[in-house]
UniProtKB/TrEMBL annotation:
<feature type="transmembrane region" description="Helical">
    <location>
        <begin position="450"/>
        <end position="471"/>
    </location>
</feature>
<dbReference type="InterPro" id="IPR002213">
    <property type="entry name" value="UDP_glucos_trans"/>
</dbReference>
<dbReference type="InterPro" id="IPR035595">
    <property type="entry name" value="UDP_glycos_trans_CS"/>
</dbReference>
<dbReference type="GO" id="GO:0016020">
    <property type="term" value="C:membrane"/>
</dbReference>
<keyword id="KW-0812">Transmembrane</keyword>
<comment type="similarity">
    <text>Belongs to the UDP-glycosyltransferase family.</text>
</comment>
<protein>
    <recommendedName>
        <fullName>UDP-glucuronosyltransferase</fullName>
        <ecNumber>2.4.1.17</ecNumber>
    </recommendedName>
</protein>
<keyword id="KW-0472">Membrane</keyword>
<keyword id="KW-0732">Signal</keyword>
<keyword id="KW-0808">Transferase</keyword>
<dbReference type="Pfam" id="PF00201">
    <property type="entry name" value="UDPGT"/>
</dbReference>
<keyword id="KW-0328">Glycosyltransferase</keyword>
<dbReference type="GO" id="GO:0015020">
    <property type="term" value="F:glucuronosyltransferase activity"/>
</dbReference>
<keyword id="KW-0325">Glycoprotein</keyword>
<dbReference type="InterPro" id="IPR050271">
    <property type="entry name" value="UDP-glycosyltransferase"/>
</dbReference>
<keyword id="KW-1133">Transmembrane helix</keyword>
Length: 473
């Protein structure tokens, strides 16, 4: 899948925990060039696709969408197409690579909820119900297929780009939630499900509704305790409310932030997918202009792109120990794109944030942080040097942001059992029962048709009864 490393990084804390528990864990996704190791004792089966490059890190069209566009439902689900092309190529031209993995006997197959056609094929070939892994929140269409009873009207849409705000008391906001949920269901049910069905037709018959509806379990990374109220179920677990232990800064980073003239450290990092080579000049100039004014701080910027004219108080580096820098007591602020992993690292390190969300669910993550009062949000379309500097100084100089993120961290930690312990426990239970728990553990409503799910039969009965009474008069 084109976004394999990004999503795999989200799953890694749970997978590393399973390795610690003594399980043999293998990770598979397609790659188009050699990758850095995932670490943690996980066995890697990363298939290098030959003769085809669908990577998005150097894709000018994708970069233009990230920096200048808005990702709605259609754009958000579009990666199913290149991931299907990649899977087709693998099955046709590198079948041995696929079958070497698929023909092994797996006790449990965990598949990404998004963009993983060959992952679904491995699960089908394994012959056991799969576990669905969600790299962020549980998508509404999957909640519907699994009959989790989640009302899309009561939560912000995944792609919150219309206003960058959401209020449940606002009719238009509720409308956007239900509109996006219906669009997602229609796209997945008709277009994407059939695309994947055709892609892996040689492995078995596939429909998304059946695949998800029969899944053994769903694990998702979103920290629901700081989100919105949603119904939970026996077979859905949030494994993402955990904080790793940071390492003390050493070497050039420790030396840089130890400057006695510094009032603190600011970290700026926009994730691994963001390509600064394609960033609009107005955006780069605005950020550089603002950072150059903050000479009383030491600024570390995760940056890989054209040469920048920055002052000596700014360090540019292609790769950063992000969480270690955030956890350093001298760090005062995080400037981020709003990815879920970055949001959780801000909470775990108790660091206030200024967000410049770019695509996917990042606007919603930034909005959530702002509603918890530990962040400010800047619209990428109207970003200026003045707005960047103003928001940076506002968050750093007002200690209410720091107090707010500490409060959120306390909510994050307030659990009877850690989320990784919880995830580990349920994996053990699934293995005990050969991949799926007894039938009484699951909701019988998961087998309902759309006709029954939305009470259409009752609605028709009421309508017929009303008409009967009306015509009697």
């Amino acid at each position: 899948m084109p976004q394999g490393r990004s999503h795999a990084g989200t799953f890694m804390p749970l997978l590393h925990r399973l390795v610690e528990d003594g399980h043999n864990v293998t990770v598979y996704f397609d790659i188009y060039r050699p990758e850095l190791p995932l670490g943690g004792g996980v066995e890697e089966n990363l298939v290098l696709i030959k003769g085809l490059d669908l990577s998005i890190d150097n894709d000018a069209e994708f970069a233009n969408m990230v920096w200048n566009g808005e990702v709605g439902v259609v754009g958000g689900l579009f990666p199913f197409y290149p991931s299907s092309l990649s899977c087709q190529h693998l099955l046709k031209h590198q079948a041995n690579d696929f079958w070497r993995l698929a023909n092994q006997s797996w006790d449990l197959v965990l598949t990404d909820s998004l963009f993983a056609p060959c992952g679904y094929a491995i699960a089908l070939n394994n012959g056991k119900p799969a576990v669905i892994m969600h790299a962020t929140d549980l998508e509404n269409v999957f909640a519907y297929y699994s009959s989790y009873g989640r009302n899309p009207v009561l939560s912000p849409p995944l792609f919150l780009y219309d206003t960058m705000e959401w209020n449940i008391s606002n009719f238009y906001d509720r409308y956007t939630s239900i509109r996006d949920a219906v669009k997602s269901l229609m796209l997945v049910d008709f277009a994407i499900s059939n695309l994947i069905r055709w892609t892996i037709r040689s492995i078995g018959d596939f429909t998304f509704s059946e695949y998800v509806g029969q899944a053994a379990f769903s694990f998702y990374d979103f920290p629901h305790s700081i989100g919105w109220t949603v119904p939970l179920a026996n077979d859905i677990i949030s494994y993402g409310m955990s904080c790793k232990k940071p390492k003390p800064l050493t070497g050039k980073y420790a030396k840089f932030v130890s400057d006695p003239k510094s009032r603190g450290t600011i970290l700026i990092a926009f994730g691994t997918i963001t390509n600064w080579d394609f960033a609009p000049k107005r955006v780069v100039d605005a950020i550089v202009g603002a950072l150059n004014e903050l000479t009383d701080y030491r600024i570390i910027w995760g940056y890989k792109g054209p040469k920048l004219d920055v002052k000596d108080h700014i360090m540019l580096d292609e790769w950063l120990p992000q969480f270690d820098i955030l956890s350093d007591p001298r760090t005062k602020l995080f400037i981020s794109h709003g990815g879920l992993k970055s949001m959780k690292e801000a909470i775990c390190s108790e660091t206030p944030v200024v967000y410049v969300p770019l695509f996917a669910e990042q606007v919603r993550n930034a909005w959530l942080a702002k509603t918890h009062s530990f962040a400010e949000v800047i619209d990428k379309k109207t970003l200026t040097a003045g707005s960047v500097e103003r928001n940076i100084r506002k968050v750093i100089e007002d200690d209410s942001y720091s107090k707010a993120v500490k409060r959120v961290r306390s909510i994050f930690d307030d659990r009877p059992i850690s989320s990784l312990d919880d995830g580990s426990f349920w994996v053990q239970r699934l293995l005990k029962y050969n991949g799926k728990l007894p039938g009484y553990f699951y909701r019988t409503s998961a087998r309902n048709s759309i006709f029954h799910h939305f009470y259409m039969d009752i609605g028709i009965l009421i309508l017929v009864s009303f008409c009967f009474v009306a015509f009697q008069k």
